[in-house]
Amino acid sequence: GAVVSQHPSWVICKSGTSVKIECRSLDFQATTMFWYRQFPKQSLMLMATSNEGSKATYEQGVEKDKFLINHASLTLSTLTVTSAHPEDSSFYICSARDPLEGGQFFGPGTRLTVL
Amino acid sequence: AQTVTQSQPEMSVQEAETVTLSCTYDTSESDYYLFWYKQPPSRQMILVIRQEAYKQQNATENRFSVNFQKAAKSFSLKISDSQLGDAAMYFCAYRSAYAGNMLTFGGGTRLMVKP
Hints:
The complex is a heterodimer of chains A (115) and B (115).
Chain A: E1 4-7, E2 10-13, E3 19-25, E4 32-38, E5 44-51, E6 57-58, E7 67-73, E8 76-81, E9 90-97, E10 104-106, E11 110-114
Parallel strand pairs in A: 2-11
Antiparallel strand pairs in A: 1-3, 3-8, 4-5, 4-9, 5-6, 7-8, 9-10, 9-11
Chain B: E1 3-5, E2 10-14, E3 19-21, E4 24-26, E5 32-39, E6 46-52, E7 60-61, E8 64-69, E9 74-79, E10 88-96, E11 104-105, E12 109-114
Parallel strand pairs in B: 2-12
Antiparallel strand pairs in B: 1-4, 3-9, 5-6, 5-10, 7-8, 8-9, 10-11, 10-12
């Protein structure tokens, strides 16, 4: 099946700094990628839909200036958490849509800890 | 907007026994897809099984099968011959056939398998 990678898998940063998370589709081209946030023992909450070559679509309540999404190529989307604060600590998961199969494949996730 | 409800926060099953996880959803659409995802302790989301709403036949994948009741908007997952490796969080998800590829997740059910 299709493979989606994320980097880094775990990052610790100081409050006020910015962190970039990469999501790559390794063996297919993904015109659409999705970013989710998951708090401990909770479900996945969709943050935004990332479309290659255009602006991301953010879900209600998600600050677009805080969570910058760039989908510059068909295999890479990035999520940048700007001026991170401890409340941004969470597990971030990306997924990519395979346009041929129509399925959605998930990356392994990134654990962000803001001190 | 669509909603997905998993009414069982936790379930327990004896190894080799059968367990059924419940999922209900609310939608006004006639065509959609339903999924069960498994999230083990590694937190990698794994697709277990999918069902197209236009298909009356219940999907099966080896030990995993669903009971899809479209009129009742119910989509339960049955795991037969439970194995220790089945222990995980299980999420039911809905995807519209009309708009994009975004998934709406239920709150999840934690499945414990007793040896």
